[in-house]
Amino acid sequence: NTAGTYRVLRKDGRAGIHTPSIHSSVEIHDHNLNADMGSVTVWIMALEDLGTMAHHSEFAVSNPYYMNYRILSDCRTSGDLDHAAFSMVWSNTWYPQLYAKFCKGQVYPDAYNPREMAFVAAGHFELRKGQWYQLCFSWNKREHVYRLYMNGILVGVSNSLTKGLAYETVGDTLYVGNPCMCIADLAFYSEFADEKEAAARYV
Q1: DSSP codes joined into one string, 38-76
Q2: Which of 73, 97, 120, 189 would you label with 112, given CA atoms 20 to 30 Å apart?
Q3: Pick from 22, 106, 3: nearest CA to 63
Q4: Selection from 199, 186, 111 nearest residue 155 by Cα
Q5: Which secondary structure element, helix H or strand E, spans residue 83, and what is its range?
Q6: In what order do the strands lie in the sheet with 87-91?
């Protein structure tokens, strides 16, 4: 299902959906994110170069979450990560990074010490305009292991120095899209993707 306007873009043999408004999204009603183990892959293409940028208060007048670019989330409001029990996002709050989390609220509430939550990130990650990237997020909640891959390469691992990473129940509906990206080939898997499996999916 779709909410608001969308269009289909094609580049380099791949077709994806672009939602041109922060009020538009594609709705997904079938997922396995509440399973103890699994993985999800998705292809993204930035429609402009995404990297470090200056922040001004005027930017937040019409969109208070302008620094967060939703790829996949269980919160209808694009970029609102505080109310999302699950989100995959590109953000430039402090510096450009890709991350996925299974918990509501801020990861860094005091900017320095992260919460012990199910979270994995790849820091200082810029996206080039018009280039397809495959993002793969893999989880094993019982073992508290979360991994993030880009184009089949491991780029992020969760905190392994804690006794456990808290996670929350994901909502029934997921929302896909943001005005600066085209998103394609979203797929859920019941298997945890290790380095070998993630590399095999990059085709």
Answers
A1: EEEEEEEEESS-B------GGGGTT-TTTTEEEEEES-S
A2: 73
A3: 22
A4: 199
A5: none
A6: 2-3, 25-28, 174-176, 68-73, 87-91, 97-101, 119-123
Cross-strand bridge partners of residue 54:
none
pTM: 0.92
pLDDT at 110 over 70: no
Residue from 121, 106, 130 nearest 16 by CA: 130
N- to C-terminal Cα separation, the chain: 27
The predicted-structure confidence for 148-172, as pLDDT tens digits, reads as follows: 999 999 999 987 777 778 899 999 9
Count helices and strands in the chain by DSSP H and E runs: 1, 14
Q: Looking at the chain, list the stretches that DSSP marks H as alpha helix, in order from N- to C-terminal side.
A: 195-201
